[in-house]
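Subject: for your reference before the review

Hello V.,

The reviewers asked for a structural picture of the protein, and I figured it would be easier to keep everything in one thread rather than splitting it across files. Below is the amino acid sequence we used in the manuscript, unchanged from the supplementary table.
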Amino acid sequence: MNARTVLERFPAGGPRGSWPAEEFAQARRLEGQHVDVVMDLATDAFLVVVRELVE
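And here is what came back from the structure prediction:
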């Protein structure tokens, strides 16, 4: 089973041309973490999540 851990939340209404969730995710990828940016429609926020294998 795959579980996700939320590393950070970013409001969807950021300044035009600004992608803080993507920038944060890219920095984590450069550190070797496997992260994705997903949209949480219920809270109107972008989430940076890391996938972990749960046994």
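For the response letter, the relevant points are probably these. The longest strand covers residues 2-11. The mean pLDDT is 88.

Happy to draft the paragraph if you're swamped.

O.
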